[in-house]
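Here comes my example:
=====
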Amino acid sequence: MSGFSIPGIGSGIDWSAYIASIRSSAEKSLTNTLGKQQYKNSVQQSTFGQIQGLVDTLRNSMLGFQDARDFKTKSVSSSDSNVVTGTANLSALDTATTLSVERLATNEVFQASFTGVSSVVTTADGVFNITVRGQLKSVAVPAGTTLQGLAGLINSSAIGVQAQVFDSQSGGTNPARISITDNLTGQADTDNTTWHPNLDFATASTLTDLSNGAFSVLTQGQDSQIMISGNSIYRDSNIVDDVVPGININLVSADPGVDKTITVTSSLGNASTKIKDFITKYNTVIASLRKVVKFNPNEQTQSNQTAGDPTLRGVLNTLQNKVTGTQATLPEGSLITALADLGITVSKDVQGDTAGLLSFDGTGEAKFNEMLTAHFDDVINFFQGVTRTSGTSTITYTGFGKNMTDVIGGFLTGADGSQGALSSKMASLQAEGNRIDKRIQEKLDRIDKQEQFLKDKFSRLEVTLSQLNAKQSSTSAALNSIALNNQAIARG
């Protein structure tokens, strides 16, 4: 209606104000009906979206309970981490191991001198031969190949060695160097007292300017050696993972004859951290659900747009029952069948803000750690389930982690696209919101058309009245003129 005006010249009526009042009344009626529905739908979508996000976060925290063995971790400390370090798995005993690192495993390196890195190694097509750990390897070398080009050919041939070329800046006629390094550490044979080359250049190469005799050993390939309780142990790597059960010993540097100690210790801290994270997320979900379904008996029309919503109440009740109840899927006679057995308690407040929330205080954490220490396997079985075999029958019992992941997954959209309780209601709300928006737009379009109809109608009326007024004025003027003429004749 902006800029529109019917001044009422012919009728004397302000039609613009009249049309504006009709539109205002129609819009107010729309606001009180579909507008309120739109607002309620929007609030409900926002609420369900928030709850979906919180429940999904809770599901992610539950995934960690399906592989609960990482509740207990093993760490390895070293008396000298510059010489030796280590890692351990759960099978390792909590103990200290004393050892000395006599030597490290090395990569064997041979080197040859040459006139220059860009000098040609052969004027005719030739072959570079090298025996790598008992296997003859040959690399075709085209005529005109430089020393740098030869290194590239060796490296691209994947024959178990790496070549490097550089200028030693040593002067003389052969300042360039080519180094050939065995990709593997240690010795190829089992003789750890006498060096036997891993690389051999005895088989003649046919390069014009790089003879077999040009290569000499720069670094001997040798096994690592450690001493444990007077015993020499040799390995072809600097990671020794098959000597002390459950421990990977990482050799960093040699320090012959000097004892070092690596110590394995267990930690249960990861378990408490996971439990606390789960409880925090669970309590957030429960508190949020209680808030959004809360019904105010003093309000005839609830200001809370999701008060008493059956879907949200169903999620709330299911979560509380499943989390705080006994896990019936565990084997008969299980030592631990509920979170309460692990020191996790439920608020006794029935109606207040803390109703249904979990607690894991100092006393509870102490009980949890005690159970984890004394009954580790029972705790793990509770969280991740257990498989039992009797004769030819095998039964898999699901634990708390899998049960709760499935329950929570039932509220959300599944990997196969299936709709859970929350996702289904969310989709329904979105569809309803779209329908309401469409109806509102249709109503607004109708109001616009009605407004335009009235504008056109009253505009035509004013034109007609203006024309009639003009004719009336003309007729009055003519009548006045006749009257004046008659008066003049009469006086004449």
Notes: The mean pLDDT is 88. Residues 107-222 form a domain with the Immunoglobulin-like fold (CATH 2.60.40). The chain has three domains: 37-67+270-426, 73-103+225-267, 107-222. DSSP finds eight helices and 19 strands in the chain.
